[in-house]
Amino acid sequence: MDSGPRGPSGTPESGGKPPNWQEAKTFYDSLAPKKKPKSPKPQNAITIAVSSRALFRMEEEQRIYKEKGVEEYVRYQLEHENEPLSPGPAFPFVRALEAVNSRLRELYPDSEDLFDIVLMTNNHAQVGVRLINSINHYNLFIERFCMTGGNSPICYLKAYHTNLYLSSDAEKVSEAIGEGIAAATIFSPSKDVAVPQSQLRVAFDGDAVLFSDESEQIVKAHGLDMFFEHEKTYENKPLAQGPLKGFLEALGRLQKKFYSKGLRLECPIRTYLVTARSAASSGARALKTLRSWGLETDEALFLAGAPKGPLLEKIRPHIFFDDQMFHVAGAQEMGTVAAHVPYGVAQAPRRTAPERQAPPAVQ
Ligand SMILES: [Mg+2]
């Protein structure tokens, strides 16, 4: 007897016995692929677009691209297409989003209120096979690929109703922010800190991230004392919204779905406000602004100018957003995946043309 799959009666494998249709059905059902969950429609989902270099580490590939050009780069990727890429800075975040999705699917089997992850890359289509192999290797659920062939991702981000765009290309991120899309440049931490597997943790700076930069402008123009005075005077006037407010809102919407199933304490999403404001002098305006939007963070940490890195090391978020590179670098050094939101008065002046001679990076 052969050891291959046993065919149903009546098929050539059965040796000519009369057909048994029930047996045949069972046989063919066993060949059917395992049922995968369906992707939600973009207009219903919370869409997170990540670039390939945010999701996977591609330093060696990037070096080949820069030093030897696109042909060598594509050749290298083809030669290594069965070798999965290592996880990049956005990987634990994407994993945590998927963990939240599976809890939501258990609780609300018919709902499309889910995260949907889109891989947004300007890579050559041939490199797509290595990316697909890597995604399958780690069992990630990423069905939407957008290979822009070197074009700007902006129109695709809009078409996908993107709620958050993460990339390692600061220029593309600035372009997205300029178009009103929540976006951040993501950095790998300098050391590895284990992040929770069963709870998504997201930490936000306040000014120029959740809020507009209007108060930060006061600090820059008139100093801290005037800022404290100003915030006290306008304590009851909500700040305008910043680029990441919509993402906090989306997280809050999903949190409520867990709360309504009695899971407030064990909610698999936890949010943090980590601000340099001090509680006594300028904290109230931040909290009252969130309240005026019907939003809250689970924890609010007012550091009064103290470094954010040590505190973030304790929180162990999957991602931390800040508009100031100083805080991003401090978080990164202490093992936090930090993402820079290029928005507001704190941004360094744009680079001048002569420095921008390098070919556009692969995202
Ligand atoms: Mg800020």
UniProtKB/TrEMBL annotation:
Residues 1-44 are annotated as: Disordered. One of its GO terms (biological process) is IMP catabolic process. It comes from Sarcophilus harrisii. This is 5'-nucleotidase, cytosolic IA. GO terms for molecular function: 5'-nucleotidase activity; magnesium ion binding; nucleotide binding. GO terms for cellular component: cytosol.
